[in-house]
Amino acid sequence: MTDPAQPVLRMTGVGKTFGLTRVLRDVDLTVRRGEVHGLLGQNGSGKSTLIKVLAGFHTPDEGTVELDGTPVELPLSAADRRDHRLRFVHQDLALLPSLTVLENLMADDVATGSGIRPRRKRAELARATALFERFGISLRADTLVRDISRLERAKLAIARAVSHLDAEDSGVRGLLVLDEPTAFLPHAEVAELIALMRTVAAQGAGVLFVSHDLDEVLTVTDRVSVLRDGELVGSEDTASLAREGLVRMIVGRPVSTLSAGSAPVPAVRERPRLQVTALRGRAVEHLDLSVQPGEVVGVTGVIGSGFDEVNQLLFGALQATSGSVAVDGLELEARRLSPSKAIRAGIAYLPSDRAVEGSAPALTVGENVALLSLRQGGGPFALTGRKLERHAGKLLRDLDVRPPQPALAYASLSGGNQQKAMLAKWLVTGPKVLLLSEPTQGVDVGAREQIFNLVAEAARQGCAVVCSSSDLDQLAQLCNRVLLMRRGVVSDEVHGRAVTKAGLTDMLFADADADAVTRPHRAASDA
Amino acid sequence: MAVAPTLPRPRRWTSRIEAGALPVAWLVIFVVFAVLLPDTFLSTASIANILGSQAVPLVLTLSLVLPLVCGDYDMSVASVATLTAMVIGILNVNHGWSIGAAIVAGLVVALVAGLVNGAVIVFFGVDSLIVTLGTGTVIQGLVLWISNSTTISGISSSLVDLVIGYKLLSVPAAFYYGLVLCLVLWYLLQHTALGMRMLFVGRGRDVARLSGIRVGRVRMGALVGSAGLAGVAGTLYAGTTGSADPSSGTSFLLPAFAAVFLGATTVIPGRFNAWGAFIAVYFLATGITGLQLLGAESFVQQLFYGGALVIAVSLAQLARRREARSGGTAS
Asked: In terms of domains, do A425 and A517 share one?
C-alpha cells in the first residue's frame, strides 16, 4: 500500500464554497515523505477549511485527494484516515488532564480495542517507553497529564499521533498534521518541538505544519505552501525563500486599502481614562496601557499571544496574577478584580462568545438587555413586565435592533442584532471604559457598520475603548492605535494614519526582532 | 424601522394555550369527578379538605422553586422539613419549651441546614444534586437519632389551632399560609431585580457573572431560602398532625418534585414559577383524591406522582428543543 516514491498527500483542484463565499479555489497541495511542509496564510485564507477537509469535517465541492498514491473518497472517512495513517494534532492537543500519560497515549485504542479481553498493561508500558525513547521524551507513564508542562503535553500529543504512524519496518509512514501546536508555548520551548518534528519526518512520515509564526516555519520546514483568499499562491522550497518573499506571498500586493483611515488621536490629557500597569495573568506576561477618553485602542496578535485575554483580565473575568487597573485615577488591584467591581468602576465588557458569556439565549431580548438597568424602575418594584418591555424597547429602538420586540427570544435575533442588543445592555450603564472582544464576529456587513458607529459614538462621548480582535479590517476601521501582542507582551504598535489593514498586516508579519519590526509601519506613517 | 418579515414572531397563541393547559386540565378533572361523585367529591368538606391538606406539599414545592430557578437541585427539603417538625416536637413536648420558642429553634435549624448545603455547593463547587442527596440522608439519620425513631405526639394545641384550627370559609388556615407564600414568591421572582438575577444565574451562569451578579451569593441565598421554606413546611406539618413523625418526610419529596416540574409547564411555560407550582400541587391532589373516592387503592398516589414527574420533565424537554430550533437563526 505504501510506495516510497509516492507523496503521502496529494490534493488536486480542491474547491469549497459556503453559501456565496468561495473559501477554497482549485487548491493543489502535495506533501512528500520525509518532509516537513509548512502551511501558511492569514485569517480567512482558507487554511482551516483545508485542514477540516483532511479531517473529514468538510466535503469539498470539487477536487480529489490521494493518500499514499491511492485516491480516497470524500469526505474522508475515519477508516481511510486510519488505513492511510493520517493523524492530527490540534492546538488544544485533545489530552485528558485527569488521566495518566499512559492512558492518554492509549486513548485512541480504547475505541478499537479488544472489548472485554484484559488489557496487557506490561506490553502497553513497554510500547510507551520505546516510543518515548525514540523521540527523546522523558516522561513517566504514570504521571497525570495535568501535572506535566505544556511543552511535555504537546510532545505527548505528537508522540501519540506518531505511534499510529508506525510501519512494520520500524520506520514511520503516513502524514502527521500539526495544527498550530506551538501556539501556547513560550519561545524557548518551541525549539524542542521543532526537533521532535524533524525526527518524525526523518523517520519517514510527512509532516504538515500549520502555523502563524513565520520564523518557526522558516526554521523547521523543507517546503512551504501559502494560501491567500482561498487560493494556493505557491509551494516553494524553504531554503530558496527569504522572509520578505514569504510575507509578500502571504499578504499579496496590492494590499486592500478598505479602511478609510481612522479618526485622529485625541489630544493627550493629563490623566488617562484607563491606566493599566504591569498587568500579568494567563498568557499575558506584561502589559502597560494607557487609554485617553475618546480613544479606541486595538489589541491583536496570533493565537496564544495573549491578545484575546487582555479584556477578560481587565474586567476580572479571568483572574490576573499581578498588576493594576485604574479608571479615572481610581486604582484597582488586578488580582482582586471581579466583574462586579469592574462594573462599579465603570467598565463594560462585551465578550466574544455571545451565546454563552454574553446572553442567556432562551430568555427574552428584553430581559437580556435590561439585566444591568433593573434598578431604573425605581421603588421596590424593579423593571419587570410591561415596564421592562417599555424600557428595553426604547433601548432596542435607539440602537436600531431589528425587530425591536423585547418579548422575542434572544436566540431568534440575527447575529448582528444580538450584538447590537448587547451593546444596548452595556451602553445604558454609561460606561467609562468599554472593552470589546471580537465585536463583529458572526455579524453581517450592515450591522457591522452600525456597531462601528455605536462604538465611535461611545468614544466621542468620552469612553475609553479597548478592542481585542484578530480581524485586521475591523481594527483598521475602528481604532486610533493598535497594539500587537507576541508571546504575552506588546511587541509593536501602530498609530495614526498607519492604522490601515496594510499597516496592520505588515506589523503582524514583521520580524520578531525589535529593530526590524518598526520599519514597515514607520514607512506607512510617513506616507 | 421596518420589521424584517422573515424573523419568527412571538408565538402568542400557542404559548397562551401552553400556559393555560394545566389550569384547564385541572378544571376538567374537577368537573369529571364532580359529575361522577356528586355526593362525596363535590362537598364543602371534601373541597376544604383538599385545599387544607395540601399546604405542606405546596410549601415544600415552593421551597424547590428557589434553587431550581438558580439552576440548583435541593434533594434535602423533605428531610429538613421533618427535622424542623422533630425539633419542634422534642423541644415543645420533651423539654417543655414554649411553642413559639420551639418553632423559632426549628426554623433556625432548617436555615443552618441550608447554609451547610450552600457552603458545600458554592464554595467547593460540588454538584448540588449529589450534595443535597447526601445532606438529606444525613439529616434523615439525625432525625431518627434525636427522636429514637419514635413519633413524638402532643405538640401544643396552639400550633394545631394556628394551622388547622382556624378556618376561613371552612378552609383551614394552612391553605392561606401557602397562598401568602405563593404571593411572596411570585413577587420576588416576577417583580424584583433579585428575581431576574436568579433567573440569569440559572440560565446563564457566565452571563450572570460577567454582568456583575455575585453568582455564589445568589445561589447560597436560594439554598438557604429553600431550607427556610422547608422549615415552614415542617412547622405546618407539626401543626397539622400535632405530632412529629421521624419517617414522614421522605414521602413528600417526590410529589414536590412532580409538582414543581409540572408547574414549570404552566402560567409561564418553561420557567419555574410560584403560581404554576400552586396549580400543579392542587391539580395532582384533586386527581388523587377523586380517584381514591372512586375506590382506587393508595398505590394510585405513586402512579400519579411518578407519572406526572416524568411527563412534566419530558414536556419541558420538548419545549426546550423547540426553543432551540426556533433560535436556530442565530449565527
From this structure: no
Do residue A329 and residue A372 come from a single domain? no
pLDDT tens digits, one per residue of A96-132: 888 888 888 887 766 666 666 666 778 888 888 888 8
**Minimal C-alpha gap between A178 and chain B (Å):** 29
Q: Phi then psi for A421, rounded to 5 degrees?
A: -65, -40
Contact B203 A362 (CB under 8 A): yes
Helix (H, G, I), strand (E, B) or coil at A180: coil
Neighbours of B282 (CB within 10 A): 21
Read off the pLDDT of residues A139-181 as tens digits, 9 standing for 90 and up: 888 888 888 888 888 888 888 888 887 765 556 778 999 988 7
Which residue in B9, B190, B327 is closest to A384 by CB distance?
Answer: B190
Q: What residue spans of chain B are helical by DSSP H?
A: 12-36, 44-53, 55-69, 77-89, 99-118, 128-147, 157-160, 173-191, 193-203, 205-210, 215-241, 250-263, 274-293, 299-326
Q: Which CATH class is domain B22-28+39-320?
A: mainly alpha
Is A412 close to B200, i.e. CB distance below 8 A? Answer: no
Grid coordinates given for B117 = 448545603
State which H helix or E strand residue A507 sits in.
helix A501-509
Q: Are strands A36-40 and A223-228 parallel, antiparallel or unpaired?
A: parallel
Cell digits of residue A60: 469539498
The grid cell for B326 is 426556533
Interface A-B, measured as beta-carbon pairs within 8 A, has a size of: 126
- Pairing assessment for the beta strands A330-333 and B171-172 based on DSSP bridges: unpaired
Is the CB of residue B280 less than 8 Å from the CB of residue B30?
no
What grid cell was written down for B250? 421522605
Domain boundaries, position A331: 265-346+433-444+464-527
Specify the pTM: 0.77
3-state secondary structure of B200: helix
Q: With contacts defined as CB-CB under 8 Å, which chain B residues touch A340?
A: 212-214
Contact assignment for B200 to A371 by CB distance below 8 Å:
yes
**Cell 451562569, located at residue:** B205
For residue A157, what are the contacts with CB-CB under 8 A and spacing of at least 6?
A89, A93, A94, A95, A181
Beta bridge partners of A235: A225
Asked if the ipTM is above 0.90, the reply is: no
A368: which chain B residues are within 8 Å (Cβ-Cβ)? 207
Shared-domain flag, residues A407 and A437: no
Residues A192 and A73 in one domain: yes
Pick among B210, B267, B271, B272 to test the A interface (most A CBs inside 10 A): B210
Comparing alpha-carbon positions, the chain B residue that sits nearest to A337 is B212
**Interchain pair A409, B206: CB under 8 A:** no
- Residue A18's φ and ψ, nearest 5 degrees, are -110, 115
